[in-house]
């Protein structure tokens, strides 16, 4: 595209009072799947900014050419953990060394779309650059994005033209919601924590996890947060009474796990298209059999060929030799909650090296073995001195995936 054509492009802030219908049409044009391949489509339920609305700061930009919207991009900013340092504390005659989080302000890019008729004209690059300007103006020190590892066009744009580098490769694990309830071991007690209790537990034990949001309290108090659930051995809760996270952390059982649940069903819906009639019939048959004979506990394919919702599990953590088994129990509990709410699947995203990954039920055919996160430094003056250049740091065992951005 020549300079004169680029001058005709106007990038401005999304206006919900007049842009919604046109933006939805551009989204539909961008989601044209192959006729012989299964494709995943997203329905934003009439709210183009639904996936960033709950972030501390967010912006959506649209690109116009000749008065017609031909592209858009979304971005949000938050403060997260990018590393840790050791704090030395002298107390009477003893000295303790404790890890404390190092925070940085990070921006996230998502929902970049360019109309098929206007691709390869530099519009995507222009939208990214404009969004990065807003990031810098608001003090963001890093910018990152996530895409499928095999999305070559997106990877080429960000790593080739925008200066991003490959950063992390977490796994997206998806499990179907069956017509039958999943049995949870009666040797494990599952406790629903109050938001203050959950916040205390997360800040005490997981604040040094990479990408841990500093405003975890806002996440846990959000109306979309279904709850935070703790799994412990049944015998560890005396008289069946929960004494609070402070008491729990002072003397935790040998093994325990925790996770939180986010209701994506009320934010967006998904739909799988491109399936043959044979596949649709088979899927429907499995559901009918499962519903008619729930005691058989047969694995059934959910109704993913029409719009369905999901529950997203985040903040997964725990410790002990039986932690994976307890995580499996928690996932079973979430499955049953999702079933009651009419969701089609339960999903989560974890680091590839996550120790608890073995306890997370999922179907490989529905999951993404390797998502790709790319990152970029936005300036030279940083508050994260002890970490240095985060883009060059080694990945940790775990990663905290913010449900507001999934």
TrEMBL record:
Enumerate the PROSITE patterns for this protein.
GNAT (PS51186)
Describe the location of the N-acetyltransferase domain by residue ranges. Answer: 9-191
Q: Which UniProt keywords apply?
A: Acyltransferase, Transferase
Q: Which InterPro entries does this chain map to?
A: GNAT_dom, Plant_NAT
Give GO MF terms, alphabetically: acyltransferase activity, transferring groups other than amino-acyl groups
Could you say which protein family the record assigns here?
Answer: Belongs to the acetyltransferase family.
Q: What is this protein called?
A: N-acetyltransferase domain-containing protein
User: Per the UniProt entry, what species is this protein from, by scientific name?
Assistant: Populus tomentosa
């Amino acid at each position: 595209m020549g300079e004169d054509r680029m001058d005709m492009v106007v990038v401005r802030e999304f206006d919900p009072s007049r842009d919604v219908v046109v933006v939805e049409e551009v989204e539909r044009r961008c989601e044209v799947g192959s006729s012989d391949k299964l494709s995943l489509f997203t329905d934003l339920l009439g709210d183009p900014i639904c996936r960033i609305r709950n972030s501390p700061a967010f912006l959506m930009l649209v690109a116009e050419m000749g008065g017609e919207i031909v592209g858009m991009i979304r971005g949000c900013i938050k403060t997260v953990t990018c590393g840790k340092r050791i704090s030395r504390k002298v107390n009477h005659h003893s000295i303790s060394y404790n890890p404390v989080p190092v925070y940085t302000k990070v921006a996230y890019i998502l929902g970049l779309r360019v109309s098929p008729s206007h691709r390869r004209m530099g519009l995507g690059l222009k939208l990214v650059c404009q969004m990065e300007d807003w990031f810098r103006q608001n003090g963001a020190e890093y910018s990152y994005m996530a895409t499928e590892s095999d999305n070559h066009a997106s990877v080429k744009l960000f790593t080739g033209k925008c200066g991003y580098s490959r950063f992390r490769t977490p796994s997206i694990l998806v499990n179907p919601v069956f017509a039958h309830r999943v049995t949870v071991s009666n040797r494990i007690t599952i406790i629903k924590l109050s938001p203050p209790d959950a916040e205390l537990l997360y800040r005490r034990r997981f604040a040094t996890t990479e990408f841990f949001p500093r405003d975890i309290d806002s996440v846990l108090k959000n109306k979309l947060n279904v709850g935070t659930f703790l799994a412990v051995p049944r015998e560890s809760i005396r008289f069946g009474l929960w004494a609070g996270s402070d008491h729990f952390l002072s003397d935790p059982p040998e093994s325990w796990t925790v996770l939180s649940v986010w209701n994506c069903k009320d934010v967006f819906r998904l739909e799988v298209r491109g399936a043959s009639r044979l596949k649709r019939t088979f899927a429907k048959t499995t559901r009918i059999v499962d519903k008619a004979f729930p005691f058989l506990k047969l694995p059934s394919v959910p109704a993913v060929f029409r719009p369905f919702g999901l529950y997203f599990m985040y903040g997964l953590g725990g410790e002990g030799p039986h932690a994976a088994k307890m995580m499996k129990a928690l996932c079973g509990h979430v499955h049953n909650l999702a079933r009651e709410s009419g969701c089609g699947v339960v999903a989560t995203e974890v680091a590839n090296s996550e120790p608890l990954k073995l306890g997370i039920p999922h179907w490989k055919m529905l999951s993404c073995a390797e998502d790709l996160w790319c990152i970029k430094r936005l300036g030279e003056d940083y508050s994260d001195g002890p970490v240095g250049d985060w883009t060059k740091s080694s990945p940790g065992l775990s990663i905290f995936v913010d449900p507001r951005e999934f």
